Amino acid sequence: MPRFWVVGEPNADGSISKLSTEVATLARSLAADAGGDAVGIVAGPDPASAASGLAAFLATVIAVADPDAAGHAWSVPAAEQVAAVLDGDTDGLVLMGAGPDGRDLAGTLAVLTGRGVLANAVGVRWDGRLVVEMGAFGGKLVTSSGFTGAGGIVTVRPNMVTAEPLPAPGTVEGRPSAGAGRLPRVAVLEAVEEAGAAVPIEEARVIVSGGRGIGGAEGFELVRELADQLGGAVGATRAAVDSGWIPYSQQIGQTGKIVKPQLYLALGISGAIQHKVGMQTAETIIAVNRDPDAPIAEFADLLVVGDLFDVGRALLVALRGRTG
Amino acid sequence: MHIVVLTKPVPDPAAAAERLGPDLRLDRAASPSVVNGNDEYALEAALKLVEAHGGEVSLLTMAPPNATDTMRKALAMGAARGVLVTDPALAGSCVRSTDEVLAAALRELTFDLVFSGFDTSDGNAGVVGAAIAARLGLPYLSNAAKILPDPDAGRVRVHRITSAGYDVIEAPMPALVVCTQVLGEPRYPSLKGIMSARSKEIATRSLGDLGLDGATVGGAAATTEVLDSRKPPARGATRVVRGSAAEGAAEIVAMLETRRLV
């Protein structure tokens, strides 16, 4: 009867991240299959909003208010608070999102609690033990792995499950901070927002993405219009980001933003391996490219051969005509 | 300023011959090894910083003995020396063993900064950096798009990529920084660099040298195990459409409608 712990990650505005609600939904179904329970933990300087957000998905959420963490990078002090809550539960399985914050926290928590880590799960099930599916070698192979002993940490990729709230929200139990831990804090001097980052691309249902073929910053205007029309976010390849056409928060590929939207519309993107590993598990991939032999032709569902601006503008007209 | 860059030999992604052996561990004979791509970005960032501030870059690698071949390429880029931790007991190490061994090796070295790549192209976990920082009690600065050390003040400032843009974060050195590709393309080794790399020192360390025991770290003490592996399900065939822009757009709308995406 293992306990499934869900570490909730707060957004910048204090609300619970969408990925955490997906992880909570997954933990509930694992707990049901394993005959255990699922409990959330939210730690931070002001966890109230994220904790009540997470409680819409979990019967019990522990909120640890840690005023000392204010003005500091989140993951290390939060890991110390989570370790204090876990103290004594050596069998517990700890789940969190595989975004940048969850990943950072997982590495710290592994050392603080002596647990193993299975990272970037694309599937998790209970089969007498926890079985975690992950991609290896940039997605060329899928492996199933488990923990050799009781207890472990799993980071979960976005969009693996659809978040489903409980019929009635659970309760939030406030806990005092375990005090300042022994690990050094990192000061946050300034949080800089960049344009074009309205919807976090990891969470977007639809991504319209531009590559080298866009040709310039003004070319991304069409990408933005299409993303707005489809209710999605704007993504980009490293070539487009390196050229300064769009901020690096929107970069998809090996550098870290791995996305799994329902629709990935790739404009002027060749589909080189560095980009492919960031988006190959999108449910539907539609590409517009001049070159019918571009690598993306091997894994897109639909490839329209043509000028991305001509096809993109025609698509915008067609979509607007549909809704108008 | 002294910077240690963690470098891992990985199967060459371009060769596309990666596979697991019957023991479900990486079959290292199946594929040529290269320096992990993201580690080359970390090394490039480190080399630029010592060019600007003075000092030296060294490499730390945990791998089988023949990893000296791939380490020479990183030395040819400009690193001054390397340490290779190698021991038969390390085959099949999990994340926990890897961070414990690398932390033990770092305790023997003097440094202002430790750099790790964003993740490795074989396992992709990307959690070892945070774990090493926790073991050594080092400040942990991740997702770096810019690294600005101030050796006189003994502090380092990093632009950490966030979903909305970036945070400017700062901590005292020594510290551990996780690098990203945003820091800039790695250089190609010069002929001079390749020649001089041949005589650069690669010190090897066994588990015993580091005061560790093969019963408590490495394959025998792994916290995780691979149960099976398979090829991912193939995506369906690609439909290729040629024609006017309006025809192309109509095909896209039709697919969006069929799949209920609009």
Task: Supply the key terms.
heterodimer, A: 324 residues, alpha/beta, Rossmann fold, nine-stranded mixed beta sheet, five-stranded parallel beta sheet, 28% helix, B: 262 residues, two-stranded antiparallel ribbon, 6 helices, 13 strands, 27% helix, globular
Explain this structure.
- The complex is a heterodimer of chains A (324) and B (262).
- Chain A has 324 residues and is of the alpha/beta class.
- Chain A has a 9-stranded mixed β-sheet. In chain A, strands 12-11-13-14-15 form a 5-stranded parallel β-sheet.
- Chain A has 2 domains: 3-176, Rossmann fold, CATH 3.40.50.620; 201-323, TPP-binding domain (Rossmann fold, 3-Layer(aba) Sandwich), CATH 3.40.50.
- Chain A is built from 8 helices and 15 strands.
- In chain A, 58% of the residues are buried.
- By secondary structure, chain B is of the alpha/beta class.
- Chain B has one domain (2-221): 3-Layer(aba) Sandwich (Rossmann fold).
- Chain B is 27% helix and 28% strand.
- Chain B is built from 6 helices and 13 strands.
- A 9-stranded mixed β-sheet of chain B has the order 9-8-7-10-6-1-4-5-11, sandwiched between helices. Chain B has a two-stranded antiparallel sheet with strand order 2-3.
- In chain B, helix 2 (68-77) packs across helix 5 (191-197) and helix 3 (95-107) crosses helix 4 (128-136).
- Chain B is globular and about 65 Å long.
- The model of chain B has no long low-confidence stretch (mean pLDDT 94).
- Strand 10 (187-193) of chain A pairs antiparallel with strand 9 of chain B.
